[in-house]
């Protein structure tokens, strides 16, 4: 976040055929565990959870994979409790993915960070927690939490071990029901991890 240049060059060739090696072998450098599409673990905002080693390797794959609903959020609102109450969220939905104005603005394709992104407010997070069948919430920008209060919504969600799935690219995805396949890198004890996520009709 707060970058004008995006990720920059994080992949480089450690070994190169052009330089006499037998193979091309890439390395990664200066890549945040919260870059691009990624998940958060409780240790991201809760220090006790970090030292208790509640990292991404302990996230439940049964929650990260399964039926999901993509919900279109009106352009004129953040994801507040009132907005959630007005949305047509199917009863018993476990995985919610919010498609917002962020997608129309193509924020995930921009290198410069945009602090005006749409996200979940603290009272929105409290609404989610009050519906205990919800175990995963996804968003189409780099943070599930609104920039005006990054800490509050994260702590509300992570305290209940609801998985935030951030940085989704939803330009080709319509609202509706899907099967989510999401496998984060197994970074032991990490507070977050990049992940490849696929939505299947």
Short description:
The chain is α/β, with parallel strands linked by helices. Helix content is 18%, strand content 25%.
Indicate the topology.
Blueprint: E1 11-15, E2 25-28, E3 38-40, H1 47-51, H2 61-64, E4 66-72, H3 81-86, E5 95-99, H4 101-104, H5 122-129, E6 136-139, H6 151-159, E7 163-166, E8 176-184, E9 192-200
Parallel strand pairs: 4-5, 5-6, 6-7
Antiparallel strand pairs: 1-2, 3-7, 3-9, 4-8, 8-9
Structural write-up:
By secondary structure, the protein is an alpha/beta fold. The protein folds into two domains: 1-31, no CATH class; 33-200, Glucose Oxidase, domain 1. It contains six helices and nine strands. The radius of gyration is 17 Å and the shape is globular. The chain starts with 10 loop residues before the first strand and ends with a strand.
The chain-level mean pLDDT equals: 95
Q: What sequence of helices (H) and strands (E) makes up the elements?
A: EEEHHEHEHHEHEEE
What percentage of residues falls in helices of 4 or more residues? 10-25%
Q: Going across the biggest sheet, name each strand in turn.
A: 3-7-6-5-4-8-9
**What is the CA–CA distance across the termini?**
31 Å
Main location: secreted
InterPro entries: KFase/CYL (IPR007325), KFase_sf (IPR037175)
Family: Belongs to the Cyclase 1 superfamily.
Keywords: Extracellular matrix, Secreted
Any descriptors?
single chain, 201 residues, Glucose Oxidase, domain 1, 2 domains, two-stranded antiparallel sheet, 6 helices, 9 strands, extracellular matrix, arylformamidase activity
């Amino acid at each position: 976040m707060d970058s004008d240049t995006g990720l920059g060059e994080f992949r480089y060739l450690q070994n190169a055929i052009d330089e006499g090696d037998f193979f091309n072998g890439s390395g990664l450098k200066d890549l945040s565990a919260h870059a691009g599409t990624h998940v958060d673990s409780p240790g991201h905002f809760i220090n006790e959870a970090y030292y208790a080693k509640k990292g991404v390797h302990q996230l439940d794959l049964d929650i990260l994979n399964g039926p999901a609903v993509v919900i279109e959020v009106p352009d004129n609102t953040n994801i507040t409790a009132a907005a959630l109450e007005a949305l047509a969220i199917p009863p018993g939905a476990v995985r919610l993915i919010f498609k917002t104005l962020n997608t129309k603005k193509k924020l995930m394709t921009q290198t410069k960070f945009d602090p005006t992104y749409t996200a979940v407010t603290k009272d929105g997070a409290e609404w989610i927690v009050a519906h205990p069948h919800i175990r995963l919430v996804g968003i189409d920008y780099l943070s599930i939490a609104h920039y005006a209060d990054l800490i509050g919504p994260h702590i509300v969600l992570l305290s209940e071990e609801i998985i935030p799935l951030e940085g989704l690219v939803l330009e080709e995805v319509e609202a509706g029901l899907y099967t989510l396949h999401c496998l984060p890198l197994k970074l032991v004890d990490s507070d977050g991890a990049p992940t490849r996520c696929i939505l299947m009709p």
